[in-house]
Amino acid sequence: MSLTEKVALVTGGAQGIGRAVVQSLLQSSAKVAVVDLNKTCGEECKVQLDAEFGEGSSTFISCDVSDGDALRDAFQRTVDTFGRLDIVINNAGINNEKNWEKTIQVNLTSVIKGTYLALEHMSKEYGKEGGIIINVSSMAAFLHSPHQPVYTATKHGVMGFTRAMADASSQGNYGVRINVLCPGFVDTPLLHSVEDENNMGKLVKFKDEFKDSMRKFGVLQPSLIAEGMMMLILDSNLNGAVMKITCSKGIHFHTYEPMSA
User: Fold this and answer.
1) What does each C-alpha distance from 165 to 89, 153, 187, 257 come to in angstroms?
2) pTM exceeds cut of 0.90
3) Could you report the per-residue pLDDT of 93-111, keeping only the tens digit for each?
4) Catalytic residue at 116?
5) What's the rounded Cα separation, in Å, for the pair 46 and 26?
6) N or C: fewer beta carbons within 10 Å in the chain?
């Protein structure tokens, strides 16, 4: 499928994985709304994108995704700016075990809200043309760590929610494909937050074990995650897919054994 004139919204889009995905989408001739809490980083990103892809190809919207009204407004502003919405990447995430309620709000609640808002703007049940939603989970949905129990819980939640919504979309004929992406350790600002006691609280004592895991499993570059993301966007056969990206196996899919009665 061609992404020319398609419109994408990417949360956490000004840095890390989100920034790499924005770049790939623009290279494929999509229009992109970059949604991010970090206003300075977002405005710098917009200047760079304008220089490379031309003004009008992207817009930056400063937004705390844990604020439901602000997130709704970001979706509406995207549609007001570009006239439509076709692709939503719910990517924003934090790693804060000290303020764990905030971690749930950003990593799970905002993904659920972002999915429902995406459906309002794209689902055939609302008279729209259909579209694609990709929710970003993590290999933490398969491997737990004593260093980040609440982060781990949110990523399990994102995966379960996404798979169930993909079934709802298929059975309800929403015309929206919904997939989930689970990367391993990625070289992003979030990864470097794990040594900060302000983020990790008393669990910071497990940071050496966490760093041992990073050395064992390796650290991915955001560009590879963006490559996987584009596969999920472009392959029209994928709905409810769980994509894993690791250093050892690269881009691959998780398969589930069918439940027996």
Assistant:
1) 15, 18, 29, 19
2) yes
3) 999 999 999 999 999 999 9
4) no
5) 12
6) C
